Amino acid sequence: MSTNDDLIQRLDHLIAVLERWAPPARPAPQFDAADAFMWHAETGVLSPVPAVSRVDIGLLKGIDANRDRLLENTERFAKGLPANNALLWGARGMGKSSLVKAAHAAIPGLKLVEIHREDIASLPSLMGLLRPTPHRFLILCDDLSFDAGETSYKSLKAVLDGGVEGRPENVLFYATSNRRHILARDMVENERGTAINPGDAVEEKVSLSDRFGLWLGFHRCSQDEYLSMVNGYVDAFGIKIAPETLRHEALEWSTTRGSRSGRVAWQYVQDLAGRLGVAMKAA
Q1: Residue 121: half-sphere exposure toward Cβ, Cα within 13 Å
Q2: Which of 74, 77, 173, 281 is at a distance of 20 to 30 A from 109, taking alpha carbons?
Q3: CA distance linking residue 214 with residue 174, whole number of Å
């Protein structure tokens, strides 16, 4: 056997070994398999979600103005018209993520992709998968916030509108947060203290929120709004209970929880339906 033949044989053997060691090819996303997906950054896989856990948009009470603005923005996007990335911020349990999922269900033709806050740094990889497809995507990041020492917010800034490629035309980003400016106050203050120009550091942090063209604030609800939410759920699910009893129990429930919100109203009605033996199916 010639030297060249021996070299070729060795190379073929090396290639075969490397192919065995190589990780399996990632499956191509099956976007026709579902209307909603979860992004797994560690594997680079979009897994379909057969049934999304959500509340019908007609059951979301006390947030009418925010509902209408988000629906209008989402409808424009679905039609291929200009639309803004949206930041839904404010009080816990007031229906921020529920509204996004309900809007997705109410407007046909959109795919919903949920990304965990911890995976924000992988957004460019996700964009690379979504960009070439004919589908239109809403990306939801629930409870988005960044603490001291985190730098993945820079990936989010680049994706929203600052990168070389920019945000794909077929992608819209919706985030929910308890913080209006997403970043922790101590994170901003730390940057202020270490920067050559403290004002520039603060400006950089605040500019992350500015990348969202639509801000929707969710505030703590009043007693009347809370009771309206409870009554809306009770009516929708056909739960029979005396009005005064309902009012007394609902207020007592919120007192024991120390807050009034859509989430607290939903939890009370679930407890009520369970005690009365009523299945939670719309009447």
Answers
A1: 6
A2: 281
A3: 9
Q: Which residues pair with 87 in a beta bridge?
A: 175, 215
- Residue 86, both tokens: 């949206």
Tokens of 260: 């009034």
The model's pLDDT over 106-158, given as tens digits with 9 standing for 90+, comes to: 999 999 999 998 898 898 899 999 999 999 999 999 988 777 666 667 777 77
The pLDDT tens digits of the residues spanning 106-116 come to 999 999 999 99
DSSP per position, 3-15: HHHHHHHHHHHHH
Q: Which of these, 261, 66, 93, lies nearest to 178 by C-alpha position?
A: 93
The number of angstroms, rounded, from the C-alpha of 16 to the middle of its chain's C-alpha atoms is 43
The answer to whether the beta carbons of residues 107 and 196 sit under 8 Å apart is: no
* Structure-block tokens of residue 10: 């060795």
Best CATH choice for the domain 31-218 from the list 2.130.10.10, 2.115.10.20, 3.40.50.300, 3.80.10.10: 3.40.50.300
Asked whether 234 and 249 are in contact (CB, 8 A), the reply is no
How many whole angstroms separate alpha carbon 72 and alpha carbon 79?
11
Cα separation, 104 vs 210, in Å, equals 24
Give SS3 for 35: coil
Note the residue count of the chain. Answer: 283
Q: Rounded distance, CA 261 to CA 238, Å?
A: 21
Q: Round to whole Å and give the CA distance between 39 and 90.
A: 25
Question: For residue 141, what is the enclosing H or E element?
Answer: strand 136-141
